[in-house]
Design a protein that fits this description.
Blueprint (H helix, E strand, L loop, with lengths): L15 E7 L16 E4 L5 E3 L3 E8 L4 E6 L3 E7 L4 H11 L16 H5 L2 E2 L2 E2 L4 E8 L5 E5 H4 L16 E11 L11 H7 L7 H15 L7 E5 L5 E3 H10 L5 E3 L4 E4 L1 H7 L6 E2 L2 E3 L6 E4 L5 H19 L8 E3 L1
Parallel strand pairs: 1-4, 2-4, 3-19
Antiparallel strand pairs: 5-6, 6-11, 7-8, 9-10, 9-11, 12-18, 13-15, 14-15, 16-17, 17-18
């Protein structure tokens, strides 16, 4: 059985019944009409937790290519193969002066997985630059185009994580990028990092550099320490619940989300429960960022899940707030 150790960013040594490398749409023809429990679509492997060996056919997205499909006075539309590396695509955009994805620099994973998860960082989400995608129906083999509205984007989710989970293989994504970028610098420590870099007039390259520096200072390199980035979503609570918490924890970070709702910092909540830097079996909560769970020492997927569940219980006990995994749990 083929090993998936090098295909998941946690570096978990699990296997599958068959590994199929999909380099073009027609490569899927041999794997149509499989039972929904008999196949698994794998992109960059950066946002999954494999809990055990998979008795499934793993469809590895390796469709490549970048094409300009449309251009207007203000925007450029780029169609990108689902198997392209996300950060390499970001660098490609920056080199050509196409704006919109610079805040998403250094996010691991593939282009095809980016809309499924509606990846986001530093005030920008995929939905902000998304135009459309093409996906292959794994029952019929037919290609279908999805608009932004039909993807049903939400916070770290889309229709491909809910009602259409496992039913479509995303072959390419088209992005609407700006020829005259307007920079989003108000989130996190971007302005401080630009100041440290002595940047007085931001550019695509300097904003990307600032984001990369910030991420490198907090997040471990998956090539050195197995991890999937942020393990939990930042929880969203009612304004009433937020105010109750602030009365007891006045230093708690809270951000406006939608009317009558607030977004809390999952990392801060976890840190307050004392889990930062603590280990459980082969897993650990990363010492530099409480939101990152790591493969500390030949961990099993179940070790990491057990740690996640212990953290969830601690946060509920202390704050009455439920943390939901951002990482997809695969069994």
């Amino acid at each position: 059985m083929p090993s998936l150790k090098s295909y998941n960013s946690f570096g978990l040594d699990v296997s599958c019944s068959q590994l199929a490398r999909i380099k073009k749409n027609s490569d899927l023809s041999s794997f149509l009409n499989l039972d929904s429990n008999a196949s698994f679509i794998l992109g960059g492997g950066s946002n999954i937790l494999l809990l055990n060996d998979l008795n499934k056919v793993v469809l590895k997205n390796e469709i490549k290519g970048k094409d300009i499909v449309k251009e207007t006075a203000k925007h450029i539309f780029v169609r990108v193969g689902g198997g392209e590396n996300w950060h390499n695509f970001v660098k490609w955009c920056i080199q050509r002066g196409y704006g919109g994805v610079e805040n998403l620099s250094l996010i691991p994973g593939s282009v095809g997985a980016s809309p499924m998860q509606n990846i986001g960082a530093y005030g920008v989400e995929i939905k902000d630059v998304f135009h459309s995608l093409e996906a292959i129906d794994l029952k019929t083999g037919r290609a279908k185009n999805f608009s932004k509205s039909s993807c049903q984007f939400g916070y770290r989710t889309s229709v491909f994580k809910t009602s259409l989970k496992g039913k479509y293989f995303i072959s390419n994504v088209t992005f609407k990028l700006s020829k005259s970028p307007e920079f989003n610098l108000g989130y996190g420590a971007i302005l401080n990092e630009l100041d440290r870099l002595k940047v007085t007039k931001p550019s695509l390259k300097t904003v990307s550099k600032a984001i990369i520096n910030i991420r490198n200072s907090k997040l471990p390199d998956p090539k050195l320490i197995g991890n999937a980035g942020s393990f939990f979503k930042n929880p969203i609570v009612s304004s009433k619940k937020c105010n109750q918490l602030l009365a007891n924890f006045p230093n708690m970070p809270a951000y406006s989300n939608v009317p009558y709702r607030k977004k809390l910092s999952a990392g801060w909540l976890i840190q307050q429960t004392g889990w930062k830097g603590k280990a459980h079996k082969g897993a650990a909560c990363y010492k530099n960022h409480a939101l990152i769970l790591i493969n500390n020492k030949n961990a099993k997927g179940t070790d990491i899940l057990e740690l996640a569940e212990k953290i969830q219980k601690s946060v509920i006990d202390k704050f009455g707030v439920e943390l939901s995994p951002e990482v997809n749990l695969i069994s």
